[in-house]
Design goal:
This protein is mainly beta. Helices cover about 0% and strands about 45% of the residues. It contains 2 helices and 97 strands. The radius of gyration is 48 Å and the shape is extended.
């Protein structure tokens, strides 16, 4: 098939929209007529009186082509020619070749031309027909030891020559050699070589033989003779890959001389035989003969020239365009010698003119298209080794009907030429009186007076109302008109404005010999000569330069013939031109000269470095290259440095390719490593990323269960494919061996694809258009497949290629700049190579974070190819995607890019700070707290400040540092009966956060009085295994009332040994993660019990509670059970009033003791026990189970997994014993619905 290039004018923007590959099944509409040669004539050798056939055949699906022939560039008349006939397929047959010394009518060059009426013509390559001469009899030459028998024939027939001796075919070898001329060389001749010799020509018409020659050797007396050449080497010109080449060299003398070949001081074979000839074999060869007489040596040289026929590097592509546009047919060829290029349109040579120009050596530019320019254009390349041709079709498109969606603009007003020079004119205008829309764009049409060929130039951005038309002819009249465009299409044209350029007799000519040389990565030196036609004194030179990546031209002035540009971008291509000025104004500009600044080390580190712990001994690193503007050269590889913990010694790994990942293995188990990556160019290594930390697993990943569900799945439907991308499961502790994608129309089970675990995207191809597909993604390992994530998508409808499809942005990258800012960049494939935006399109950037999971998407619009997203949360992973909108059309969303904001100092203080005395140690207190709500990174420690003066300066407070994420700390040796104030400050890798509010605590007056705070009690059960119970009891005061609390929690398994830490907490060792005792703080000040009806549902929803769930484990300062046992024994010895005894009115206040039992494996309770019965008793009420429906429940994590059943007993206690206080006893049993503790849960029980 052929390649078709569409060029359309939509909303005044000239764009290359679409390249479509047409096959033989494509619709043959106005969109194209495939037309090409299936065979072309080749160079042919013929014999006088014989036949000659030149092949030619053309193919077209639309019509039958008419074939004609040219000989030596002139069409042949074959109708009345009896010897030369045109065959049915278009080939030319010459029945009897005529050739004589003075009449050679058939020898020459031939070319066939195929034509389809009303469409155009194409020409074949040029072929040469040669005719051989008659044979001349051979003669014998007699010599002592070397015989040369010539065969005098046409050199073209030498390849068809063979020799016979005594009418028998002669077998050639190292002693018998046939020379390129056809002659026979016999070395070391002996009597056995005597006989009758003749040469024959075969396979070219009738076989012909020469007369026989007698070879005789005469014995004689030999005397010493210096060497002399019998066969001299001659210059040879050959084409590459033309078989075997023999360079002969034969010398005579006595003794027999030795002969050798040399090329660049390298000794070669005696007879130089070269097979598979290449361009590297070309050069000057020297033949050296020597026989030792007087050290005589003779030399002869032969130049071997190797030619390569033309070959296409880039063929011209078919082009679709509107009238008035400028187009370029590209054609790039190689060959040796350098091929010459000529262009042909419909079989006729294209003659360069003002509108047909050869640009960049070989390309054909057509300016201001008109209908008559339509047809077939051919690029013909030729050198001495051969010629080739390639064709392309130009089709002029009709302008479409106006968009019925709305009115188009009226004509622009007040079009004037504000600046007129010799070769350019600047036009300005005012907007239309009726624009019918915003952001108008404009097209300026202009033509030379007296011609019908009109060209168009578009404004560079919406709303711009001026344009400069360059490259005009001096002293020439032009006509200009302007058309406005809105979203509905092109509007009315302004009236034609005639303007004449100035004469150029007084301005300077172009400055010759403009050269640009890159000196450094940021500077270029330029030099030029004085214009040959200065037309007076040169006042200044204006140097224009353009950054090719931006497309914006700037200028500066100088009065010298050289200038050094500094401050340029590194490794960036620039174009330069110079204009000389005299007193009459600017002269003729030079041609553009392009140069690229030198490369340098990257100025930015790689982006988005991420670490993935693979197992206990390896970590995978992934990253993105530095931003394009900071690479400063071609990235050749990356350098990875890593170290163990905070050690200063480093190890390094260097990648020799541009892979964006590396697996570091051989690491130690359960060890923290830090990594950083830097990019390297030819000049060296650039800056490295920040150190990133990861810790290898204590043991290899778990593969006893299937992987979790993938954390995200994204789909992007196309016409016949769907691009799927995803992120791995959040739980990285389970091995993922790969991913399984299922898909199908309406069901995901029709097709299944297995992918490697490293893959993060896949394109599902060969789908039906306009079909609804369901897609599943599952992670799998050796155990099996995990839970699938579902997504659906409808493929796009099959339609005629849109002249301007809205393709989504590509290369989306998220560059993290700070703790709250990420810069998102992308590329737009629908823009030119310089990525210059010249229309009213805009881009929508969308971003979100998955924490929390229901976070809403945020969006922002921009008209540039990047956007700075600010106001983000620190230390948070965000996903970004971009789409394009132009008018009423939008692209799909791009592939996602991810970036994690940097950490910053905590922005809030630790919360829920409480202080309690340690039982039995009145001079020791325990400080407990919760992490800050806005940690902004991983908390690495805390600082506790305490003082007896709340108003003291901060530097006067005593400091107690706490390392790690512990949430409790003991302070010892305090003064009794003294008020202390406590503040806590959190820190992370970036620094310290704010201090908490001061909390006051007074130490006891004596060792016997130990009290606890009444302000915050709560408990948090985390990682509680099934097993026995511990009972925790707390006594606290509220006013004059003392409260006693007994809380039950599971004790650790008996088989595990416990070791006491320095702060009194217990740490349980085992194969899994360490277990911590439960947090038993009850937030009493926020305790709330609400009555509710008992639900008949056996699985009712849990009761809402105002108490927030905690996300941190808190280790009590003292988890010993001695005090618990003591309190239990005391409680058992206290007297209880008899049942039914009433409490004396006004004697004491209500209090309570809570006892919570834990029975995780009991299954005997009924659904009615899933809610507790609770009612606050009145004073004097008898102790009995309360049947009142007062319900409440327990929530663990985000899942209801347990409930508590309570029985109430109101107990009267004599005042002398308990100072008038009463006790309510709660008996509770916790039932787990899930047969044991849910692993990894973070339950929080609220009363």
């Amino acid at each position: 098939g052929s390649q078709y290039l569409w060029v359309v004018n939509e909303s005044t923007i000239l764009k290359i929209i679409l390249e479509v590959i047409f096959t033989s099944k494509c619709a043959r509409t106005r969109s194209g007529f495939p037309f090409w040669f299936t065979s072309e004539p080749q160079d042919t050798m013929a014999v006088r009186g014989g036949l000659a056939l030149l092949n030619c055949s053309a193919h077209s699906d639309s019509a039958v082509a008419r074939v004609e022939w040219k000989k030596d560039g002139t069409f042949m008349t074959l109708a009345s020619d009896e010897r030369r006939k045109l065959l049915a397929d278009g080939s030319l047959l010459i029945s009897q070749v005529v050739h004589s010394k003075h009449n050679k009518p058939d020898e020459g060059t031939y070319q066939c031309v195929a034509t389809i009426d009303n469409l155009g013509s194409i020409s074949s390559r040029v072929a040469r027909l040669s005719v051989s001469c008659s044979l001349v009899d051979t003669e014998a030459t007699v010599a002592a030891h070397i015989q040369v028998l010539p065969c005098d024939i046409n050199p073209d027939l030498a390849p068809f020559t063979r020799w016979e001796k005594d009418r028998q075919s002669l077998e050639l070898g190292s002693r018998l050699v046939q020379l390129p001329s056809g002659a026979l060389l016999i070395s070391n001749a002996s009597e056995s070589d005597a006989g009758q010799y003749r040469c024959l020509v075969e396979n070219v018409g009738q076989t012909k033989a020469s007369e026989e020659a007698q070879l005789q050797l005469t014995p004689g007396k030999h005397s010493e003779r210096k060497p002399e050449f019998l066969v001299l080497p001659t210059a040879v010109t050959k084409v590459v890959d033309t078989g075997v080449l023999l360079l002969p060299c034969a010398a005579t003398g006595f003794p027999t001389p030795s002969v050798r070949w040399m090329l660049n001081d390298k000794v070669l074979d005696e007879s130089l035989l070269i097979s598979n000839l290449t361009e590297e074999d070309a050069g000057l060869y020297t033949c050296v003969a020597h026989n030792g007489i007087d050290n005589s040596t003779v030399h002869a040289q032969a130049l071997l020239t190797v030619q390569a026929p033309p070959q296409f590097v880039k063929r011209p592509a078919n082009i679709y365009a509107h009238e008035s546009m400028d187009i370029i047919f590209q054609c790039e060829v190689t060959g040796s010698p350098a091929p010459t290029i000529k262009w042909v349109k419909n079989g006729d040579a294209v003659i360069p003119s003002d509108y047909f120009k050869i640009v960049r050596e070989h390309n054909l530019q057509v300016l201001g298209l008109v209908k008559s320019d339509e047809g077939f254009y051919q690029c013909l390349a030729e050198n001495d080794a051969g010629n080739i041709q390639a064709s392309a079709q130009l089709i002029i498109l009709e302008h479409g009907v106006a968009n019925p969606m709305g009115p188009a603009p009226s004509a622009p007003r007040d079009v004037v030429a504000s600046l007129v020079s010799t070769r350019f004119i600047k036009l300005t205008w005012r907007p239309p009186a009726e624009p019918h829309g915003d952001d108008l764009t404009y097209s300026v049409f202009y033509s030379q007076e007296g011609t019908s060929r009109e060209r168009v130039l578009n404004t560079s951005r919406p709303g711009e109302m001026q344009v400069t038309i360059q490259n005009l002819m001096p002293d020439t009249k032009y006509r200009f008109r302007v058309v406005a465009h809105n979203s509905n299409g092109a509007g009315e044209s302004s009236a034609a404005l005639p303007v004449a350029t100035q004469a150029e007799v007084q301005v300077p000519g172009p400055a010759p010999s403009l050269q640009a040389v890159a000196n450094t990565p940021t500077s270029v030196s330029l030099s030029w000569d004085t214009p040959l036609t200065g037309n007076g004194e040169i006042l200044i030179y204006k140097l224009y330069y353009t950054d090719q990546s931006l497309g914006t031209e700037e200028d500066l002035e100088t009065d010298t013939l050289s200038y050094t540009m500094n401050g340029l971008k590194k490794f960036t291509e620039y174009s330069f031109r110079v204009v000389a000025y005299n007193k009459h104004g600017p002269g003729v500009s030079t041609q553009d000269v392009n140069v690229r600044t030198l490369s340098d080390v990257p100025s930015s580190p790689p982006q988005n470095l991420s670490l993935e712990v693979q197992n206990s001994k390896s970590i995978m690193l992934r990253w993105q290259p530095p931003p394009p503007g900071t690479q400063n050269g071609e990235i050749l590889g990356y350098k990875i440095r890593y170290r163990k913990g905070t050690r200063k010694s480093e190890a390094a790994e260097i990648t020799r390719d541009t892979n964006l990942y590396l697996l570091i293995d051989g690491l130690e188990r359960g060890t923290e490593y830090t990594f950083r990556v830097s990019a390297a160019t030819l000049n060296g290594t650039g800056p490295a990323t920040e150190w990133n930390t990861a810790e290898t697993f204590e043991s290899d990943l778990d593969e006893t269960q299937v992987p979790d569900i993938p954390s995200s799945l994204h789909v992007r439907p196309l016409v016949n494919s769907i691009v799927v991308s995803w992120t791995p499961p959040e739980n990285q502790d389970i091995v993922v061996r790969g991913y399984s994608i299922g898909y199908g129309i309406g069901s995901p089970h029709a097709q299944t694809i297995k992918l490697d675990y490293k893959q993060r995207y896949y394109s599902i191809d060969n789908l039906d258009a306009s079909s609804h597909y369901v897609i599943t993604l599952k992670a799998f390992n050796k155990v099996g497949e995990g839970i699938p994530v579902y997504e659906s998508a409808i493929t796009r409808p099959q339609s005629v290629p849109d002249p301007s499809p809205m393709l989504p942005p590509v290369g989306v990258q998220a560059s993290v700049l700070s703790h709250d800012t990420i810069k998102v960049t992308w590329a737009d494939n629908s823009l030119p190579k310089n990525q210059k935006i010249t229309d009213a399109r805009y881009y929508t950037v969308r971003w979100k974070t998955n924490i929390p999971a229901n976070t809403k998407m945020k969006t922002a619009n921009t008209t540039s190819l990047n956007y700075m997203v600010t106001g983000l949360k620190p230390n948070t992973l965000y996903e970004f995607t971009v789409m394009i909108t132009k008018g009423r059309r939008s692209s799909g969303w791009s592939m996602t890019a991810q970036g994690t904001t940097f950490e910053t100092i905590p922005s809030s203080a630790p919360k829920d700070v409480t202080v309690v005395s340690k039982e039995g140690k009145p001079r020791t207190i325990i400080v407990n707290w919760q992490p800050p709500s806005e940690a902004n990174g991983k908390i690495t420690g805390y600082i506790i400040y305490y003082s007896t003066d709340v108003n003291a300066e901060v530097h006067d407070w005593v400091i107690e540092p706490v390392v790690g994420n512990r949430l409790t700390h003991q302070i010892q040796e305090l003064t009794l009966d003294t008020a202390y104030y406590f503040k806590i400050q959190a820190r992370n890798s970036k620094g310290m956060g704010p201090m908490s509010e001061a909390v006051q605590f007074r130490t006891p007056k004596s060792k016997e009085e130990v009290t606890s705070t009444p302000f915050a009690l709560g408990f948090n059960w985390t990682n509680i295994p099934p097993g026995s119970l511990n009972v925790y009891q707390y006594i606290y005061h509220q006013g004059s009332t003392s409260h006693e609390t007994a809380l039950a929690a599971p004790a650790p398994p008996r088989k595990r040994a416990a070791s006491k830490s320095t702060n009194g907490s217990h740490k349980y060792k085992g194969n899994s993660k360490d277990l911590k005792p439960p947090d038993l703080w009850i937030h009493h000040e926020r305790l709330e019990l609400k009555p509710m009806d008992k639900s008949p549902d056996p699985n009712p929803a849990m009761t809402d509670t105002p108490i927030p769930r905690s996300s941190q484990d808190i280790t009590p300062a003292d988890s010993g059970l001695d005090s618990v046992t003591h309190l239990q024994s005391v409680a058992q010895t206290r007297p209880s009033p008899p049942r039914g005894e009433q409490h004396p009115p006004g004697k004491g206040k209500g209090g309570f003791v809570m006892r919570l039992g834990f029975d995780p494996i009991s299954t005997q309770s009924s659904p009615d026990d899933w809610f507790a019965l609770l009612r606050t008793p009145s004073l004097g009420e008898t102790c009995a189970p309360d049947p009142s429906p007062f319900h409440w429940g327990v929530v663990i994590g985000q899942t209801r997994v347990s409930v508590i059943t309570l029985m109430i007993c109101y107990l009267y206690v004599p005042e002398p014993m308990f100072h008038g206080r009463c006790v309510v006893i709660f008996s509770s049993f916790v039932y787990y619905l899930g047969l044991g503790m849910y692993k990894g849960a973070d339950p929080f029980v609220v009363l």
